[in-house]
Amino acid sequence: MATSEKRQEILHAALELIAEHGFHGAPIASIADRAGVGAGTIYRYFENKDVLITELFRELHDKIQMALLEGYKTDRSLREQFLHVSTALLRYLIANPLDFRFLEQYLNSPYGVAFRRGRLLGTGDDNDLFRMLLEDGVARQIVKDLPLVVLCALTIGPLLAVSRDHILGFIDLDNALIMQTVQACWDGIKR
Amino acid sequence: MATSEKRQEILHAALELIAEHGFHGAPIASIADRAGVGAGTIYRYFENKDVLITELFRELHDKIQMALLEGYKTDRSLREQFLHVSTALLRYLIANPLDFRFLEQYLNSPYGVAFRRGRLLGTGDDNDLFRMLLEDGVARQIVKDLPLVVLCALTIGPLLAVSRDHILGFIDLDNALIMQTVQACWDGIKR
DNA sequence: ATTTTAGGAGTGAATGTTCACTCCTAAAAT
DNA sequence: ATTTTAGGAGTGAACATTCACTCCTAAAAT
């Protein structure tokens, strides 16, 4: 097995275990087992467990940003762009339930708070499509003049919540329901 | 110290520690210390840690339902009732940050999933004001005809998210912002 | 071409720590 | 005197991390 493969195996094993059983259910020993490596090997690739998990999140975040850009047209109306990105996010999350579950675990932990804090204090030029869209909408007076974090709460919040409900089997998020949900989010933030 | 006081001390100590440091930061020994009792004493009042935490949530849930009923008028329009309840929820959460932080920890853990599952499969006659309001709105065609869980996602989701942002210091949820946020939630679900 | 050597990736048993929970003693209540 | 309650040291299990060791590969020496 090549070196980079081994690294990926470890990341993937950690993702699966955390997604399936939460942080509690993902001891290093289990991650090593599932990745097919020795426990000590993990520490050749990652300084410690925290670094492993943070790195996992970073890669996932990038991957999702890429997915949101798929089919994104810069010449559409803001509303259409919002609907596109939101729909893409929902589709990604329900197509990749393991990614979603991990993301949720992460964001609802001390890791996530640190991430959010860094994000908000950042310069704003990071690659967060959602955030840019909302800021643009406020500037052009298409979206309600509310703080960015409130707009995020009104959009990303529900999107994550319905994804969870779908993955847990509480609802069946088919195409029609996805569109209705995304539209409802837009109704909430539009002027 | 009377028996019931001791029980309350234990519950309160657990609430504080979990709110401040998460489940990880609330070992039995610390809970006992903060409550001013011996570790063994806790097991005289609660079968195990799970029962203690579940009980804590149950009491908190009841307390919040009571707070939502404060000043609730049955003769107002659905919209006004929704705004009232949502505003009351926001006010309660930002006035009781420890309660909020605990609630969040709980709902985003395996406990919370179990709770939500029980809730959705239940008969619907439990004392959940929010849920009743939304169901009523759908029946009277005032609210979008979406599954109940989606409507919950569109309302409770953002409310919890902005509360968190306020408590973490990312925004200042003053009266004006509370009203705007609640109104935005309504805009999202109204027909 | 064959053997020797070096280096570093990989390992998992051992370590020290933390945890939920138990159990026995002592104090308080009856 | 007897029963009930409280306490906290003790217990074993689970955990992240370490470290002394084992390969394996590929370069160097012959």
Q: Describe it for me?
A:
Two copies of one chain form a homodimer. By secondary structure, chain A is an all-alpha fold. Chain A has two domains: 46 residues, Homeodomain-like (Arc Repressor Mutant, subunit A); 133 residues, Orthogonal Bundle (Tetracycline Repressor, domain 2). Helices cover 74% and strands 0% of the residues of chain A. Chain A has ten helices and no strands. The termini of chain A are far apart. The relative contact order of chain A is 0.11. The mean pLDDT of chain A is 92. At the A-B interface, helix 7, helix 9 and helix 10 of A face helix 7, helix 9 and helix 10 of B. Chain B binds a DNA duplex (30 and 30 nucleotides) through helix 2 and helix 3.
Which word captures the global form of chain A? Answer: elongated
Structural class of chain A: mainly alpha
Order of helices and strands of chain A: HHHHHHHHHH
Tally of individual helices of chain A: 10
Stretches of chain A where pLDDT is under 50 for at least 5 consecutive residues are none
